[in-house]
Amino acid sequence: MWEEVHGFVKENHMLEDGDYVLAGLSGGADSVCLLRYLLWAQKKIHIKIAAVHVNHQLRGSEAERDERFAGRFCEYWQIPFAAVKRDVAEESARRRCSLEEAGRLARYDCFDMFAGKWGCNKIAVAHHKNDLAETVLFRMARGTSLRGLAGIRPVTGNIIRPLLCLTREKICAILNDLGQEYVEDSTNMDDAYSRNFIRHRLLPDMRRVNPAAVEHLAHISRQAAEIMDYLEPAFQKIYEENVLWKEDCCLLPLEAAALMHPAELSETVRRMIAAMAGGQRDISAVHVEQVAGLFGKRPGKYLELPFGLTAERKCEGVALLRREAYLQSRKDARQKAEEEAVRPQRVDMERLEREGSYEIDFPGGGHISFRLEEFHGGDIEKNDCVKYFAYDRIKSTLCLRSRKTGDYFVVDKGGRHKSLRRYFIDEKIPAGERDAKILLTEGSHVLWVLGGRISEAYRVEPDTKTVLVVRAEDKIIKSNSVK
């Protein structure tokens, strides 16, 4: 009765002479079947076996019953055994995850601990073909990728799954033929758990459509795993060549993302999230799509992800960083903007009209000059550092300052307005740099963003009588440029 399992084990190179295998033993049908197979395999391969039972402390006397059963089973078969109690409810609250996930984490934590303590080089768990089908459906419902369809692998690192070739029904039939008892977990009948709902509702309905539904889902999963294994080296190469790391932050440059096929971009983003999160579990297709979508957004846009991460669209690309690091960077950016913000300096209009010229010196060096000239038509100088304005249209005091809410340009002769905020967005000026830009304004009307555009409302026309010539030193224009 074990030939199918043993052939699967050999095909996937799960066991070799000299292995010391630690098996998870809940006392249920699956784990008991796993131990009975390993006991049989000892006659074929020189392996040692040990077992660990994890009591989740969720089911009171029933959990104690399961622990006693596992202990008696191992005592009868002379298998080294340890039982561990873990307060999974407390761990669920502390980790902010479901009871199912907290239980899984607790089990594998105990498996790793005892494998290290006893010198076991393999950990065997009792996943079977129905578990694989349920996992595929569960991930599809939550949103997954081709990688997610790969489901449960026969081997993951030092973890082996010898029963993955069997259905639950076949496992129960084997135990029945052996006359082997096992215990039932009453929570397995509670459809409030997502997997139980899939097990008791969805899969039976799918089997009414096709009795081989579980086999077909397992086949799809196997195909997805083969494709992902084939593509793995190419995806890893793309990831390593394009993702930049700096301390606890990674960034995918905009130009690199633009050259990627959508599949390459999605897989690169997934690897970035997994690297930052410390693992791939619970990374859904939705998370990947949201992060990849930031490449089409303006700089400054961000989104919060699970795993304590934030994704931010920067000028140079999309970055992933820890939320506390992101919040600190925003705080630092605000502080820097405040430090770099231009101290408002008013133009002495009376002196300008009386003397025909006026200069303002900046604390960081350099100055800006203002000069009035009569205009008799003809071409005007075109220079990033020099701008001409129709002085006749200026009605109040001019000011050199940083941006304020409500600032705007006039963008055409029809008088259509455009907000300064929209202009900065269109020019892809990072939010953290906008307060440092020097503006020449009349009230909320922006005449000129130094190094950028001017307002059409002040453009020199043939009927202009007097022009205001504003000249800024080259170093001011370069530091303020929005091009």
UniProtKB/TrEMBL annotation:
CDD domains given in the database record: TilS_N (cd01992)
Keywords: ATP-binding, Cytoplasm, Ligase, Nucleotide-binding, tRNA processing
InterPro entries linked: Lysidine-tRNA-synth_C (IPR012796), Rossmann-like_a/b/a_fold (IPR014729), TilS/TtcA_N (IPR011063), tRNA_Ile_lys_synt (IPR012094), tRNA_Ile_lys_synt_N (IPR012795)
Name of the top EC class for this enzyme: ligase
A GO CC term attached to the entry: cytoplasm
Source taxon at top rank: Bacteria
GO molecular function: ATP binding; tRNA(Ile)-lysidine synthase activity
Domain Lysidine-tRNA(Ile) synthetase C-terminal: from-to ranges: 398-470
Entry-linked Pfam families: ATP_bind_3 (PF01171), TilS_C (PF11734)
Primary site of residence: cytoplasm
Positions with a binding annotation for ATP: S26, G27, G28, A29, D30, S31
Reactions catalysed according to its record: cytidine(34) in tRNA(Ile2) + L-lysine + ATP = lysidine(34) in tRNA(Ile2) + AMP + diphosphate + H(+)
Biological processes per GO annotation: tRNA modification
EC id: 6.3.4.19
Protein purpose: Ligates lysine onto the cytidine present at position 34 of the AUA codon-specific tRNA(Ile) that contains the anticodon CAU, in an ATP-dependent manner. Cytidine is converted to lysidine, thus changing the amino acid specificity of the tRNA from methionine to isoleucine.
Domain notes: The N-terminal region contains the highly conserved SGGXDS motif, predicted to be a P-loop motif involved in ATP binding.
Sequence similarity: Belongs to the tRNA(Ile)-lysidine synthase family.
Descriptive protein name: tRNA(Ile)-lysidine synthase
Organism: Candidatus Anaerobutyricum stercoris
The organism's taxonomic lineage, starting at the top: Bacteria, Bacillati, Bacillota, Clostridia, Lachnospirales
